[in-house]
Amino acid sequence: MKCTVGRIIYAFFLALIPGLFFSSEAALTQAFKDATDKAIDSIRRSDCEITFQYKGKDVVDTGISVSAKLIRHHFGFGGAICWDSGFVKVGKEKYGNAVKEYFEWCTPENEMKWYYNDTTGGTPCTPGDYSHGDSIVQWCLKNGLKVRGHNLFWNERVEFQAYCARPYGPYHPTDESTQIKTLSASEREQFIEEMVTRVTDMVTLFKGRVSHWDAVNEIVHFTTDDDGARVVKTPGLLATWTGKTKNNGAEVFNWILEMADSIDPDVKLCVNEYNVIEENHDEDAYINMIKEINKNAKNAKIDIIGLEAHFGGLVSREASGNYPGYESLINKMSKELNLDQDTSMKFWFTEVDWNQSGNTADLMEELMRFAYSRNDFGGLLLWIWWQGRLWRDDLKSFLVDNDFKPTETGKRWKKLKDTLWTTDTLVKSDGDGKCKFKGFQGTYVITTKLGSSSQVDTIELLPGPLSEKVITLDPSKFDIVSVRHQKQNSKAMVEINGRKITLNKNISAPVSLSIYSLSGKLISRIPINADNRTIQRIATPAGCHLLRLEAGNTLIYSDVSVKLAR
What we know:
Blueprint: H1 5-16, H2 30-43, E1 45-54, E2 57-58, E3 65-73, E4 76-81, H3 83-88, H4 92-102, E5 105-108, H5 114-117, H6 131-142, E6 146-154, H7 157-162, H8 185-205, E7 212-217, E8 221-223, E9 230-232, H9 237-242, H10 250-263, E10 268-273, H11 283-295, E11 304-307, E12 310-312, H12 326-336, E13 346-354, H13 360-372, E14 377-382, H14 408-420, E15 424-428, E16 435-440, E17 442-450, E18 453-461, E19 466-472, E20 492-496, E21 499-503, E22 511-516, E23 522-528, E24 535-538, E25 543-551, E26 554-563
Parallel strand pairs: 1-19, 4-5, 4-14, 5-6, 6-7, 7-10, 10-11, 11-13, 12-13, 13-14, 20-24
Antiparallel strand pairs: 1-2, 1-16, 3-15, 3-17, 8-9, 17-18, 20-21, 22-23, 22-25, 25-26
Helix pairs in contact: 2-13, 8-10, 10-11, 13-14
């Protein structure tokens, strides 16, 4: 290797003055903390009003006390977890306790990928062994953690050359060609059948158990060789092999999304991509592909825009050298994808890690504050968090060391998630017998006490200015309760965005308000108590939505809601 004196002096100069040419430290200023604190208080906390009922009547007892404790945020704080290297080698108790301590969402790192499930050695890919992924999901649900499914398909040569669909290769490990082989008619037909089986098996098996599916991982990039060279290539591998290449290759992604949605219409469907907000960024290709997919969607639009955030050696919210910073790139994406109006789509950081030196705890706090303070973000998931499981040896963003002892970064993660951004409060009932509090949105354990009697319930405090909840006190636990005896309304009434709808008192079927996106995707379904003789007020989220108030299969009221984001 040639090495001139000039190069030595230049390298020595750079070593003496780090940060002169690029920022290597977090921009975690007090001004940034103050601004994000204010935004977080505005968008992540909501008022909750609890009304109590006892034997069908409203409770007016002023002696009720309520303990409200947040047990899971509405925002997704998560991490990738592993079966063999985690639960098996470390042990369910030790590894599982660490997972529960730091996370509320999880995704299997590899156990749901096609190559992992395939048991035939890729000749060809067929239905295979889903037991490890299934075990992870069962454990997560048992312990109150939500799951992101990762993934149905990986639109990369690396998966297929190494494991699946070997008859369709070959791609030699040293082949640096960026060309994708076109399959014969019979090969294409067989591959499409395998894809249909794959979607049917996975989505059916995990229906109602996973909250998200990474339907397609990495929709615009293509790995050219084993050394990790990356290029934007559209139409990509899946489009080329299936022949579904219309709309710059978006056709195949629409096909996959529609298949998954037809099996589980309630699961959130995601796409995922790297080199979008990182130092090497191809955000325009990702933006354009997302637009193509949503423009040609029939029923299944993209719900989650995954930003992998494998930051590598430069983690910078602000501009650094030629890099505009991840905030600028995300602002650009949000504006071009109209996320201020289309609230049905959210960003998630899905695979966060980095190898940058410096104050990793500050870098993590800055990233957490950035995401949590934005209305267009739904979650942040770490790809590495335990030093004992690094997919690259030089990564530094882990929360716990080899022995599961917390690093400074781990302490900061927990301080924000479990101390600064949590709610654990005790409130008393007012003159109307109602208990009111303001808390961070998410799942709450509510402990209601009156005298020596108590009961425990779980409620969801959802985004919005006010969440009204009704808790029915169990007569077997509460003996003496003051109730309202004055004449009640003869019919239940629902107020939706200020419009009052009266419910017939003879309704016997369950009543609910369903909120859909304009494409017909179900966003949420809110149960309505048809026996409640008080006005039940509901405020729908910002954006354009279709509303249907139904009793069983009978339509009571429908409307189009248009609300601007505040």
